Every structure is written in structure tokens, then in C-alpha cells.
Amino acid sequence: MADLHIKIAGVDFRNPVIAASGTFGFGHEFSEFYPLSELGGICCKGITLEKRPGNPPPRIAETPSGMLNSVGLQNPGVDHFIREDLPWLKRQGTVVIANIAGNTPEDYCRTAEKLSDTSVDMIELNISCPNVKQGGVQFGTTCKGAETVTSAVRKVCRKPLMVKLSPNASDIAEIAAAAESAGADALSLINTLTGMRIDIHSRRPVLHNNTGGLSGPAVFPVAVRMVWQVSRRVKIPVVGMGGVSSWQDAAELMLAGASAVQVGTVLFSDPYAPLKIVNGLNRYLDENRIADVSELTGKVKPW
Amino acid sequence: MKKYDVRNCTILKKTEAAEGIFDITVEAGALAGAARAGQFAQIYVPGKTLRRPLSICEIGRADRTLRFVFQVRGEGTAVLARLRKGETLNILAPLGNGFQPGDTSRRALFIGGGIGVPPLLEAAKPFGPNAVLAAGFRSRSAVILEDDFNAAGCRVRIATDDGSLGHRGLVTDLANDLAFDVIFACGPKPMLRAVSLLAEKRGVPCQVSLEERMACGIGACLGCAVRLRGESGEHYGHVCKDGPVFDSRNVVWEA
Predict the structure, then answer these.
(1) Shortest Cα distance from B44 to chain A (angstroms)?
(2) Domain B103-209 carries which CATH code?
(3) Does residue A20 lie within any of the structural domains?
(4) Nearest-CA neighbor of B127 among B148, B106, B147, B158?
(5) CATH number assigned to the domain with residue range B5-95, chosen from the 4 options 2.40.30.10, 1.20.1740.10, 2.120.10.30, 2.60.120.280
(6) What is the pLDDT of residue A47?
């Protein structure tokens, strides 16, 4: 039995499989299937300073080997999360990562400050929110934006800080480097790729928000490439995600440079997928006489 | 027993109920035991990213079966329609809140439009002769489940768009000369909005079963939003967890 335990930014995970933000709520619904302690960790649904209503429906569209979503950060706000959801989550015996989003650096800072006084294990900074100040420039798509918000939050955040990167950038490795130099303890990538579908009969976009985020197996090769490029560029740990659906995908992303993986869209077709991935990784390690899962990280042999 | 779970279910029976409409009964074990009228299931389709939500048409308590009557609408449901007796369906169920039948000695009006009729059957059964089904279809050839409602002791009235069977016109017309204390409805949004107005005019409670594009089916992803009216104003609820059945007064009917 291989050692599946990993450590990221000083936080211990019992295995490298983490539920991805936005697909797992605050865990309640999935605890009906299995004890959440079987997971490496949970990235909570994105939380903002004030509650948000989210976007009008339709918010979901299936696409070839994937899906688009435009939920629009519907959430009850950080105070509600701390009061109503966090106490239960902390009792489940898994790592709790709070994913936070905002319109302005001040929003992010105040949310991170509030969470710094709680039992949350880690904060994941979601810097690919499409509705931001500064004339619509996304924090996650420019080095300046990534640096500004990461360094601002770093000053007030007393938890390990993981910055979640957007793939909608011309050079994600540059943005990764900017987040690292601004004080990130870890990086997670990739968030969804912006996409769009149109109903040719009604001539309406399928999503009410017109555009949405593409996820699922369709984006996996992009995730592998970006994890590879980013992990070669930075020294801090990288958590990989983007269409991971099987233990083979998880192993591949780790070989590309990830220290752990997040699993999201596959949960919609198979809620048990994270446990299958953990078991599959374990078998793969044993069969290949690898004692420790972290030995996979970055071990791709590029041509 | 868990509230819901995933299970491989063997198809015991499959027929084509009308053109493009399929009727499947599966052996569902504990899932059938936990199910209530008006709940739904998420059916896995090999090769697809999302499961397909199908409402439960009938629950076989004794033989632990679930019955689904669904229409082929796209690639996913087309795959399901090609499955044969003896093959398995991977089912996540039972999901959602279901209908609240309440006092079954009340006179209940069940209104269904097309493929909105199946979810009403299990809820109508305990009402027996106290239930009237008003069902609307495109034409005579699209009529489904008439015999099942009759067998449950319910009275059945039918409307068709082309007048090939029953009343020619809207299903809601059928309610004009009926007396009832409660309404249960499922069908296209415009029909449900009209039913909601009818309930308001008659001063009776009305439960509507809604549909929306859905991903997780359990309330985690917040994909299947529906605009609701609550004590603290309007907000987005979710069809999969807060519904699929809602009090019609709480639904904000958007154009």
C-alpha cells in the first residue's frame, strides 16, 4: 500500500484528490454517498463578501465531452458560510479549502480576513471572476491584476494561500510567476475556459449569460499543458485540475507537475469518481512499486 | 437507507408508448423503497458529461421497481431509447422533493401537458375517483397513460391541439366546468403559468413540477436555477433540491 499522503503549503492531505470548487457545494449533498473524510480535501463553492443571487437560467449547457456553466457565483456570503456551513464541514475530517471571489481587491481582502479567524485550512483565491473593477480587466488574465490582488490578500491573510489561475490568458506561466512573487503559497489550475453555444433555431445563446465556463474532459489536454508549463516556471506547489475523470488522468496531471488534483465535472456523471481515482492511483503505485504518490509529481520525461 | 444513491438497475420492461416516447420499468431495489411521487432520477448516459433527469412515473413498492416514461429530445435520450430489456441503466435516485398529496379525499385536478403527464400518475393514484386528469397532447397519436389513470380509478379528460381526440384546444379549457380543491400540474412553462393563474382565480392551492437544465441533480452545483418569490423577496432556488415541485404562488413566471 503506497503512501498517498501529501503536503501542500504546510497542510496535510490524506490523499491527493480534492473536490473542485463549484461542483461540490459545501459538501452536504455528497456526504450522502460516502464519508467526506475519504477525500483529500474539499474546495468549497466560491464565497464572496456579500451574498450573490447568481445568473438567470439557463446556467448549464452540455457540450462535446464537456459542459458550459454560468452559475455566476451564487452563494450566501462569507458570514453565512462561517456561521452555517463551516462548523459542520470541519467535523467531516477532511481538509477544508475556502474558495473566495470578489469584484475588487478590497472585497477579496475583507473576505480573506474574516476566514483567517476561522478553522478553514486554506484559502483558494479565485482570480478569474469576469465582473471586476478596472474597466473589465480580469485579475486572472494579466500579470498586473494577479499581482495586485494576490499581494493585497497576502498582507491580510493568515491562512495558506493558493491562487487559482484562469486559462483565459496569453501566457499562464507569466501569471503564475506574478502570483508566486506576490506571495502565493500554492497555485491551482485550470479554471474553466470561456465558451459559448448558440441555439440555431432561436438564435439565442444557450446560456442566459451568453458565455460560460467550459469544463470536463474537453479541457483536459489544455490542463495538462498548462500544469506542465506552470510547474516548470514556479517553485511553489501546483494543484492540477481541468477535466480529470479517472485515476489515469490524475496520474497524468501529476506527472505533468501537479502535487495534487481537483476533481469537478466528473462528479455530475459519477459522484463516486473521487474514491475510484484514489483507489486506482493506489493500485497503480503498488503495481509500479512506487512508495509515495508525490514521487509522480513532475516526472514526465519530455522529448 | 440513504436519501439517494447510485445503482445499476436492470430493465425489466420496455415499450414505445407513442412515437418517440418510451416506457421503461427497471428493478431499482432500495431506490424504489425510498422514492415518492413527483421525485426524479438522474440517468447515466454512456459517453455523456451530464446525466439525464427523468421524472418517476410509477413506483412499484412490492416488486421494488421504478417506471419512467420519457420523450426522445436529443442524443442522450436517444441512447436511452435504444436500450433493451435485460440491459442496465445506471440511476441516481430518488431526487427532489416530490408532490405533497395531503388529504386524498379532496377533489384533485391533475393537469399535464404531453410528456408532463407521466410524473402525475403516482401522485394521482391515492386520490382514485377523487382525481380528474386533464391531459393535453398534440394529437390522438401522442396520447399516453390514459389507461393507467383509468386503472387507478381516476377520471380522464383529454384535449388535443388538432382535435383528433377529446376537446380541441388548450388543456386548461378542460378545467372550466370542473370543481376541485387542489391542483397538481406538470408540463411546458406557458401551460404551467396558465394553470397557476387558474388556481389563483379559483382560490385553490397548486403544486407545479418544473424542469430546468441540470448538472448534479442533488443541489451542489446550483445549475438548475428557478426564480422564486419568498418572504424576503425574490431569489434563485434550484429545481433539483428545492423542487422539482413548487407551490405555484412561489414561482416567478418569466416570459
Answers:
(1) 6
(2) 3.40.50.80
(3) yes
(4) B106
(5) 2.40.30.10
(6) 95
Helix then strand then coil, % of chain B, to nearest 5: 25, 35, 40
- The chain A residue lying nearest B7, using CA atoms, is A270
CA distance B148 to chain A (A): 32
Q: What are phi and psi of B157, to 5 degrees?
A: -125, 135
**pLDDT tens across B133-191, in order?**
999 999 999 999 999 999 999 999 999 999 999 999 999 999 999 999 999 999 999 99
How buried is residue A53: exposed, middle or buried, by Cβ count under 10 Å (0-12/13-18/19+)?
middle
Given 2.40.50.100, 2.10.240.10, 3.30.450.20, 3.40.50.300, which CATH number is that of B211-255? 2.10.240.10
Which residues of A are identified as catalytic?
129
Q: With a threshold of 0.90, does the pTM exceed it?
A: yes
User: Does residue A1 fall inside a structural domain?
Assistant: no
ipTM at complex level: 0.94
Quote the minimal CA–CA distance from A234 to chain B in Å: 32
Give the mutation candidate from A24, A50, A269, A275 for the B interface (greatest B CB count, under 10 A).
A269
Owner of C-alpha cell 415499450: B15
Cell digits of residue A8: 501542500
Residues on chain B touching A69 (C-beta within 8 angstroms): 215, 221, 223
Query: Using a CB-CB distance cutoff of 8 angstroms, which residues of chain A are in contact with residue B212?
Result: 57-58
Range of the domain at A22: 6-296
Rounded Cα distance, B214 and A6, in Å: 34
Q: Where are the domains of chain B?
A: 5-95, 103-209, 211-255
